[in-house]
Design brief:
With 334 residues, this protein is an alpha+beta fold. It contains nine helices and 14 strands. A hairpin with a 2-residue loop joins strand 7 and strand 8.
Length: 334
């Protein structure tokens, strides 16, 4: 088992955290925990003390029990597992302190037979990347760097639909965290046209079938303005800068994995149409004048819609141009 990889059986500490997290602001009695886990009251107390030693703030009140007040701002299986409400995503978790790229790590795991939903998270990336190989600023302990191995039953030509699945899930999770996010075609999440998150999908496929899709997501959660290089401050932002308060990263990650799995399952059951409909509700691209750089060419027109494959339809004069890939600059509303 690789370092930082979650084992199948949760530890007593993870189970206790799960009970306390589920209780929220309510106290959970030591007796109730003892009965549920088959542990002695002394063993429960020792596990609570161990968790406190790892940075968890757990309040204890005689005759009332224990209450989880604060969790450390880390992304390991101990923080994430008790918060997960998924059947596949994140259930096998590779939590790393530092990695070149979570997507490279997940890609290697996929080649070695990783199962659907296996997830890689890292505190820091040394070679994080976005679209077209661009660098992704990845300082330690600030943001979310996550990649998931997907095993969809899709022909290769439909794999790009999963970018829309991810975009909807990321935007909704940010909105739930009081960040008014919107989706910019094809795979950027923005707030007032400043990028707050990016999505990268990489395909492992044979001509007729997808072997794996590596879904990489980077979300700027707790970056300060000083953390952003000067050349990015006009075009990038973070949840912290937008809402004026830090984001608990473990809670955000668990919420994102739940939304991702929900939309992924819906896509598998109902196809692309409901995902595309929700994407339209969340996008800031449609009905905007845009400048598109694609295939060495540049065009300016009005983004009108996406078609049933996710391609952007741009009205350039009297012509409707179908854009499959490219960089989009938002100019002004029409």
């Amino acid at each position: 088992m690789a370092p930082g990889t979650q084992t199948d059986a949760p530890s007593s500490e993870e189970l206790i955290l799960g009970f306390l997290a589920e209780a929220g602001e309510e106290f959970t009695s030591g007796e109730a925990i003892s009965n549920k886990l088959g542990l002695s009251r002394t063993a429960v107390w020792k596990n609570v003390e161990s968790l406190r030693g790892k940075g968890y703030v757990i309040e204890a009140v005689p005759a009332r029990g224990y209450r989880l007040v604060e969790i450390p701002d880390r992304l390991t299986e101990l923080e994430l597992s008790p918060l997960l409400n998924t059947h596949d995503f994140g259930r096998t978790l590779h939590a790393l302190d530092e990695v070149g790229s979570t997507s490279d790590e997940a890609s290697q795991l996929a080649l070695e037979g990783a199962e659907h939903g296996e997830t890689v998270v890292a505190e820091m990336q040394t070679s994080g990347r976005g679209r077209r190989g661009r660098a992704w600023v990845s300082p330690p302990g600030k943001n979310l760097y996550l990649s998931i191995v997907l095993r969809p039953e899709l022909p290769p030509q439909r794999a790009p639909e999963l970018t829309f699945v991810a975009a909807v899930a990321v935007a909704e999770t940010l909105i739930e965290a009081n960040v008014p996010a919107q989706i910019k075609w094809p795979n950027d999440i923005v707030v007032e046209d400043k990028k707050v998150a990016g999505i990268l999908t990489e395909l492992h496929a044979e001509p007729e079938r997808v072997q794996a899709v590596i879904l990489g997501i980077g979300v700027n959660l707790n970056l300060t303005e000083k953390d952003l290089p000067s050349e990015l401050r006009a075009i990038a932002t973070s949840a912290l800068l937008v809402r004026g308060a830090s984001v608990p990263r473990a809670l955000f990650t668990a919420a994102l994995l739940a939304r991702l799995e929900h939309w992924y399952d819906r896509h598998a059951e109902e196809g692309f149409e409901p995902i595309c409909a929700r994407w339209r509700e969340l996008t800031c691209t449609l009905d905007r004048q845009v400048r598109v750089s694609t295939g060495g060419k540049e065009l300016i027109g009005v983004a009108q819609d996406v078609d049933n494959s996710g391609a952007l339809m741009v009205a350039v004069g009297d012509e409707l141009v179908r854009v499959v890939a490219g960089d989009v600059e938002l100019l002004r509303p029409v």
